[in-house]
Amino acid sequence: MKILVGLTLSYDSIYFESEPDGDWLTDREGNLYTLRMIHYTAWIARRWIDPAFPRAFPWFAENKYWEEHVLALREQAAVLSEPPLEVV
Q1: E-state strands within the chain
Q2: Counting C-beta atoms within 10 Å of the first and last residue's C-beta, which end of the chain has fewer, N or C?
Q3: What is the pLDDT of residues 21-76, one digit of tens each?
Q4: pTM for this one?
């Protein structure tokens, strides 16, 4: 646990000095969240030929998943295109 805390604090201090409270870890409207969404879907797609993946992720082949995923990506694009919030 100490290692995880140390890594998190180090990463936070190097890359996110303006956010010392660690909000970047849970930021659902940020670049990291959008990247995770895309990376997770790409990871499943790359591994889809493995017989375990269709069994583990049956929803991945359904139209409903892709409709929701595209909608979520469009929402993220809209959020990311907005000007950043300013601290006053």
Answers
A1: none
A2: C
A3: 555 555 555 778 888 899 999 999 999 999 999 999 999 999 999 999 999 999 98
A4: 0.62
